[in-house]
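Hi, here's the filled form for the chain we discussed.

Project: internal
Contact: R.S.
Residues: 379
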Amino acid sequence: MTTIAAPLDDRFGLDRKVTLPGPLRLDGGGVLASVDIAYETYGSPNADGSNVILICHALTGDQYVASTHPLTGKPGWWTRMVGAGKPIDPARHLIICANVLGSCMGSSGPAGIDPATGGKWAMRFPVITIADMVRAQAMLLDHLGIGRLHAVIGGSMGGMQALTWPTLFPDRLESVVVIASTARHSAQNIAFHEVGRQAIMADPNWRGGDYYADNRPPSAGLSVARMAAHITYLSEAGLTEKFGRRLQGRDAKTFGFDADFQIESYLRHQGISFVERFDANSYLYITRAMDYYDLAEDHQGSLARAFERTKARFCLVSFDTDWLYPTSESRIIVHALNAAGAQASFVELSSPFGHDAFLLDVPELNRVVDGFLRAGERG
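And the returned structure, exactly as it came back:
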């Protein structure tokens, strides 16, 4: 059970949302006059404010890292890592997790309100990048009166944000934890995302993104997008062990297009449950932001140059069955950190769960993160 401290004032606590004055100038040339950010906090700041941890969520994640999701009723997405007695502990840390810019759980995005028109942004929302998400998080920290972070931590797309933090705000953090992530999206990553985007836009209910008025979203397209993406989060060994070629409680195939195989039923369930909590336009915007992500390109083609100004400590973790962001991607980052003279530790963990391992039961990951954070606290 996660221990949640009582709110200190209206800035800290659960289910918070704030509208911050802009302007926020975006990499794509757009400007947001104001920025809505929904966020959750757990724990309390210590006397000198040196215990603040920012957690960055992945593509389909949200701010409910350790509290019940209001739409699904499910526990937070990282209760294995965040909670009483866990590596990230409200008894030791002030923990902050914000819904990213472009998402659909309260932060500014296509499903939100355009203050200039009073209507939904839809596809009129400006194009965003991972760096734009980080700048919005920095605005939130300013609002909360937090100048410096003990750590920024993230897995997958959250790891991209964590990696971007020391390049944009090198003096604002002490340590960085990057799990199952990358410094750039590969052609294969972009290809899988494009399949998902095309599935959404091919759905007749998408209508150029203007589906909010009659509440008929492109659910079929978004469901297929989720199914395709979910395959990349798993491993072949994990799929074989969990499903194999097993049928749905039958001894023989029915020779049709119903869900004969257990894996078919599993993927369809993933797709159907996803559309209940996520917005299709947000999926388009966030996947595009991930595809634009290339940290070296943003620093004259040199990944090492991206980290030249930071004094932060880094911990990178990969998984041996992750083929979405394989270990080789983490090694590239470690080599760049070494070239920049940064303090960096790296470990590849063994897990049958593929890319999703950072969200699942991998006790060794908890030990790595706990040891890294405690070493920084002792320092």
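Let me know if anything looks off before we file it.
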